[in-house]
Amino acid sequence: MNERIVHGRIDRSGALVSADAPLLRLQQRAGAGLGKPLALPHLARLVALAQRLHRDISRPLHAADDHSDILALVRIIPDADGASLEISDWRARPVAQPQIPAIADNVVMPHGWTWECDQQLRMVALRAAPDAPPVPADWEGCSLSELFELQPDGDGRFPVLRALARQSRFDGQHVQADAPDGRLAMTLSGDALFDAVGGFTGFRGSAVVAEGDVMVDAVPAAMLVDPAFGSLPLSDPQFGRRIDGALRGPLSRIIATAETISGQFDGPIRADYARYAGDIAHAGRHLLGLVDDLADLQNIERPGFKAAADEIDLGDLARRAVGLLGMKAEEKGIRIDAPRTDDKAPATGEFRRVLQVLLNLLGNAIRYSPDNSLIWIRVNREGDHATVTVADQGQGIDADQQAVVFEKFERLGRTDSGGSGLGLYIARRLARAMDGDLTVDSAPGQGARFTLSLPARDVG
Amino acid sequence: MTDSVSSSGIDPLSARLRELADYLAAPAAGRLTEEQRALSLGIARRLVADVAAWLDPAIDADGLWRDWLRNGVPGAARLAPICFARAEEHRWREQSAQRTPPPPILADTGEGKSEAAVGAPLSEVDRAYLALQIADRRRFDALGHPALAVADLDGDVFRGLLRDVAAWRLPEVSQYQARAAKLGDAVRVATERHAAQRGIADAGAAYHKILGAGLSEAAGQATARHDWPTLIALAAAALHRRYDDMALALLTAETAALPSLLAPLHLDRTALAPLEASLTMLPSRAVTDDGARDYREMLAPGQGKR
């Protein structure tokens, strides 16, 4: 960040009467100078706004000349004789050249395609680079999501849809495509395109075949042995891969399509239909979460699974979990009473896994708590174990349910809420793999208290 | 493959003398810039490779181009206007892109909504515009370099180039009677196939036809948005000219001649202003003269594919 303040002064008629060098240079490159009306449209609009409101305003400023885009923060102080400008955080970056073909001479794309679509994601160009697999036939005018089966990223999101909403560049969009030579796993990236009046006109980018995975293995139907959950071949090391192949692709397609419909990207539809599509996307995400849980389950049930022994602080991890799920709680008006910053509980466990357990506990607490209630999180030391307890004001769990709540596919005795029914099972397995435990203490109508304990660490 | 001709130190004297004679004949005239030369040569090379692949995918396009670089490109006079027109169009579009203002910065709206991506199912007009865009994007290679689509070539230019490529190929296959005969068949089949192709001029004509009374507004919008291929295609359709011919006419027109040149599009002075400004800023722009008109008329294929 550049801390220097660039000053300027506008007179009553809107002319720039004094300016520090960077502002003056920008004004001159825009074809004006001192004593001339402000030639930077965005800044001129902000000055007019401040003068109309008769008060100081501070706003981001976007300007550009032939050489660079300028991003800055401007404060405008209007007075009877005009306005004073204070511009800070002045940053310049080279002008993007959005309409120039994105692929330069020296870009090596051994397995790549280049593509372009319009603002409604209809394909207008698709070409294979030399030595790349041939492109599918009949791509002209078909939609990008039809040609490329979109796969969600680690957060279950689709970079291309996000970029469409933001009208910005994207990368890392994993896709699968049916090429004439077989199914390809590819990664899409693209730049947003704009016309001379600033209108978004689409994306142009490349699709690169994922390294080491030129052709996606087809999953023979016979390999999907028994769909009943109780007989999942969890000890089979190929199981996770089969799940990915058999479920993740179709689910991703369902979610992407439902989100496209729900977001009305292809045109307005009836509100209730958009809501139904939103429900489908939600259900798809739930199923995708189940696939993730099953893959996780297969991992931790593998013989010899061992968690790392990091030096962690349960207080710190609890606050991180609150930071991640705070918004979700706020949506229900739930207040979370988190450990204070000086509440520490040094322990030994795998950082990532402990955070996973805490997110599961806090997520359950939010899911089963009534609106406008309170969730407590406390850390403590009990003998040679450090503990973190998550307590809610939900309906509670009776003794019978407590006995099975850590079993697979138990959903705290409820069937009407999300969740795969594997979260608590996985959480306890993880706690025990780190030489700790996960316990519950509850009574109907009194909320539930889940306590994670891990080996305490003495801090000298 | 190379798009530049570097000196090996033993250049033929005749070439130098021809160049000097041309220079002395018009010492004050501007010459091709290195950029114009490189762009045109690259476009010619990609076109030759594409036509060779049409004739026979087994043809060694690299070897063919190396030979032609050494000995001169046959039918160079035929190729010059179309390669130059495409190169100049590319320079123009590139310049417009560089001067495009930075895109608006939108708030992070997640994946939920997109103002730009909302629209009714494709109307006939939208469909025609989409087809025009697709036809235009065929005029780039996979790496984004400007190219000429075979479908856009005039019938005579295509046949001439096809025969030149076949003539180069013939010595390689002449010892095999069957392969030589097959080459002849390939020329005939390629010519017939090409006649059925629909290029950017056809897409422009279809768009022009469907716009009807909306022509002026669409042309005005294309000008404001610096959507030059659409403007060229509409003008070409309105004036019944080939796309490359129209592009060259527009790119080399005196500013004062633009209103009359684009009169069928019914654009007022305000709508023409962005076009005039953009052309004025294009560096090293050639302006049409009687010599160029004579040259084009001499080469005009007349009844060829539009």
Explain this structure to me?
- The complex is a heterodimer of chains A (460) and B (306).
- With 460 residues, chain A is of the alpha+beta class.
- Chain A has helices at 21-29, 41-53, 144-147, 159-166, 239-262, 271-300, 314-331, 351-368, 399-404, 423-433, and strands at 6-11, 16-19, 57-64, 68-79, 82-94, 112-117, 123-128, 148-150, 170-179, 182-194, 200-209, 310-313, 335-337, 346-349, 374-382, 385-391, 437-442, 448-455.
- A six-stranded antiparallel β-sheet of chain A has the order 7-6-11-10-9-8. Chain A has a five-stranded antiparallel β-sheet with strand order 2-1-5-4-3, with helices on one face.
- In chain A, strand 4 (68-79) and strand 5 (82-94) form a beta hairpin.
- In chain A, helix 6 runs parallel beside helix 10 (423-433) and helix 8 packs antiparallel against helix 10.
- Mean pLDDT of chain A is 77; it is low at 94-108 and 213-235.
- With 306 residues, chain B is an all-alpha fold.
- Chain B has one domain (9-100, 120-298).
- The longest helix of chain B has 23 residues, at 76-98.
- Residues 107-120 and 301-306 of chain B have low confidence and may be disordered.
- Chains A and B meet through strand 3, strand 6, strand 7 and helix 4 of A and helix 4 and helix 5 of B.
Compose a concise summary of this entry.
Chain A folds into four domains: about 5-95, 2-Layer Sandwich (Beta-Lactamase); about 110-215, Beta-Lactamase, CATH 3.30.450.20; about 230-300; about 310-455, Heat Shock Protein 90, CATH 3.30.565. Helices cover about 30% and strands about 30% of the residues of chain A.
Topology:
The complex is a heterodimer of chains A (460) and B (306).
Chain A: E1 6-11, E2 16-19, H1 21-29, H2 41-53, E3 57-64, E4 68-79, E5 82-94, E6 112-117, E7 123-128, H3 144-147, E8 148-150, H4 159-166, E9 170-179, E10 182-194, E11 200-209, H5 239-262, H6 271-300, E12 310-313, H7 314-331, E13 335-337, E14 346-349, H8 351-368, E15 374-382, E16 385-391, H9 399-404, H10 423-433, E17 437-442, E18 448-455
Parallel strand pairs in A: 13-15
Antiparallel strand pairs in A: 1-2, 1-5, 3-4, 4-5, 6-7, 6-11, 8-9, 9-10, 10-11, 12-14, 15-16, 16-18, 17-18
Chain B: H1 13-25, H2 34-55, H3 61-71, H4 76-98, H5 124-137, H6 155-173, H7 177-195, H8 200-211, H9 215-224, H10 228-239, H11 243-251, H12 258-261, H13 269-281, H14 290-299
Helix pairs in contact in B: 2-3, 2-4, 2-6, 4-11, 5-8, 6-7, 8-10, 9-10, 9-13, 10-11
